[in-house]
Amino acid sequence: MAVADNLLELLKEIPSSVSLVAVSKFKPAEDIMAAYAAGQRRFGENRPQELAAKAAALPADIEWHFIGHLQTNKIKFVLPYASLIESVDSLHLLQAISAAAVAQGRRVDCLLEVHVAAEESKTGFTPDEALAVAASAADYPGVRLRGIMAMATNTSDEDRIRADFRRAREVQKAAGLPELSMGMSGDWRIACEEGATIIRIGSAIFGAR
Ligand SMILES: *Cc1c(COP(=O)(O)O)cnc(C)c1O
Question: Is residue 81 within 8 Å of 59, Cβ to Cβ?
């Protein structure tokens, strides 16, 4: 089975201190179950309804990470299922997640998505904004801030990618938060060298989307 083989080959290379999120977006339940059967328990989805449907249908011991842009009116699909919302990219969203969690008497683990890439279009907090939010985390009682999520510039220039990851690492350290989610199929090795604690890998496990 290609999925299981891909996963097991990757796991041989990934440092044991780094947590692998298998990004299963757009992939069917049978692919997720192939990875599950090979031992994988942490999966990532980027669409709220897709996360909710898969989480409701698949084994309860799967840990789901939400990694996509989240509109406030879709929080209700994510909150019951996500063990970590990695892609909190605005103050407005952070406030809304906190309020929704408080209304349910709970707290949800979140990462702040920080913009470090060269592209203008990428969403997320600037490093300074992220540090300010981390310093005022008490204002969001429904959220437990666990760290920083970032994406490197989409380029083949390894120096550029490494510089982006270093910037993300600086923000994580300055914020005093434990988790740093960065690195995808094409750049996870560099991310691990630069201090990632979580990597998010899709196509290298499940094939092209
Ligand atoms: C799709 C996605 C990934 C995985 O990308 P691959 O290149 O398929 O490994 C990682 N992070 C985010 C935020 C994504 O949307």
Answer: no
Whether the CB of 202 sits within 6 Å of ligand 1: yes
Question: pLDDT band at 122, cuts 50/70/90?
Answer: low
| CB-based burial, 51-60: b 16+ in 10 Å, e otherwise | bbebbeebee
Quick count: other Cβ atoms within 10 Å of Cβ 159? Answer: 9
Model pTM? 0.97
- Domain containing residue 150: CATH number: 3.20.20.10
Number of domains in the chain: 1
pLDDT of 121 strictly over 70: no
pLDDT in tens, 54-107: 999 999 999 999 999 999 999 999 999 999 999 999 999 999 999 999 999 999
- As a whole number of angstroms, the distance between CA 55 and CA 29 comes to 10
* Residue 65: domain span: 2-206
Q: How many CB atoms neighbour CB 123 within 10 A?
A: 11
Query: Please, what sign has the CA dihedral across residues 67, 70, 76, 79?
Result: positive
Q: Which of 31, 46, 149, 165 to mutate to test the pocket of ligand 1 (most atoms within 8 A of CB)?
A: 46
Sorting pLDDT into bands at 50, 70 and 90, what band is 52? Answer: very high
